[in-house]
Amino acid sequence: MKSKQPENSKQPKLGIIIYDTYEEPSDISYTIDSLKNMNYTPYRAKIVITSKHTENTVTYMNMVNQLHELGFYAEFVMNTKNSPKRVIDFDVCKRCLNTDYIVKMEHDSIMNQSFLDRIIDLHQTIGNDTKMIEYKDICAIDFETVNDEYKKDNDFHNMIRRLRSEFLVQNQYEKIG
Hints:
Layout: E1 14-20, H1 29-36, E2 45-51, H2 57-69, E3 73-78, H3 85-94, E4 101-106, H4 113-124, E5 132-135, E6 138-142, H5 143-153, H6 156-169, E7 173-176
Parallel strand pairs: 1-2, 1-4, 2-3, 5-7
Antiparallel strand pairs: 4-6, 5-6
């Protein structure tokens, strides 16, 4: 049973980035299906798929079109096999401007509704200091933090590792599940 969500204006805007940047092309259909089935207002989420694999281009464009049909803002970003990590990260993050949280997902991540509900709860809690939430391999960081901290690492994955350590000490980190 899907949980009841707050009115749309109270849902944070999410920038959801799906990385398919591994050496071999991945099947992200389960990840996309989990996003299509989440109990969330579609226009409050921007979904960006990033890949270095040209053989998946048509499949990913079809997925983006399916997301559009459901009301999501979605993009596919094709990179070259030699694209530096920092360029890939910068390109996808800039597509998520004007969001409240950046949510990083790997190619095989499955969106968990309780994780999503927790992001909503934290967003609505006045005085909340939590800046980073993780569920398995999905990580949500408030956009202001990403904007301030990314330049220290020039790598989204390294930034997450560093911030996890810092935020644990500062009680600004939460692990779900």
